[in-house]
Amino acid sequence: MEMFIKGFNSIMDIFFKMTWLNDLSGFIVQKLLRLDLTSQIGGSIQFFIFDTIKIFILLTLLIYGISYIQSYFPPERTKKLLGNMKGIKGRIVGALLGTITPFCSCSSIPIFIGFTASGLPLGTTFSFLISSPLVDLGSFLLLMSFFGFKIAFVYVLVGLVLAVVGGGIIDHLNLESQVEEYVREMPDVDGELETMTKRKRHEFAKEQVKDIFKKVWPYVIIGVGIGALIHNWIPQELIENLIGNNNKFAVLISTILGMPMYADIFGTIPIAEALFLKGVGIGTILSFMMAVTALSLPSVIMLSKVVKPKLLTIFVLIVGIGIIIIGYSFNFFGYMFI
């Protein structure tokens, strides 16, 4: 058993924590750039090199694997699967299906439109819409590499709960009339499902890697840059006063700060890591990440073209209040996860 644990820890160090890459980036900064790692400039460059390369390596492997799995769940098959499920069962499956779609919130909306046009219950489609940008296999593995298994697991769990509960509230409010008419009137075309060969699945996965890489790489670079700035240049006292554990409004502030931004979870993790290293509460950090990924301003604007103001307001309130509750809960019980 002890050998198994040591072996598992070694795999974690090599693949997830990438201690070898941390040593390599430190060597580059110290020996090649001749900078002191304890200096602000040296520490920032080391942070930037390490986190950028680490995230891109993980992104490539994770998106490929997730996309290969996703090839078994095209929208047509997903609609047929969800069409046979009602109530909480449909919402749970909708939320779970959201976890295998490596999309940001804006990319999830066209699929949400397709599901709604096909007549799926509104609660099921919103459970999918909430979970898709918020929780996926990639976010779980990336979070595990930065924060450990417990935090990653609980983040995914509470994200799914938020998606199911949020969809349930919308379902019970009978808000079908709040969907724009053109969405309901869109033709629902179900073609023959193509049986993909293994070769086609690999090609699909490679194309997804290229496509998603093109979309997310700027946000990763910006996120890592902000993370390096927070980690090495912004004074500890300033962060503590704004969103530190002594500020009872920290979770609310981080949620509000996150909402206007547009990024997926890959771009928020380096910022979260820097805040974590500065001693910010895990609940405050996760509320920021959830607000950026699930309630970004561009996605809310896109959704406003699909649903009427009443439903849009209810959606934002449900997800926003849910994120705040999750944030305070994590801060209160944070000692259990670290």
DSSP summary, beta strand count: 0
Q: What class do helices, strands and sheet pairing give?
A: mainly alpha
What would the principal axes of the Cα set say about the shape? globular
Give the SSE string: HHHHHHHHHHHHHHHHH
Q: What does the largest sheet look like?
A: none
Distance between the termini: 23 Å
- Rg, nearest Å: 21 Å
Percentage of β-strand residues? under 5%
Q: What is the averaged pLDDT score? A: 78
Which residue ranges are poorly predicted, with pLDDT under 50 across at least 5 consecutive positions? none
Note the total helix count.
17
Report what the structure shows.
Helices cover 75% and strands 0% of the residues. It is an all-alpha fold and 338 residues long.
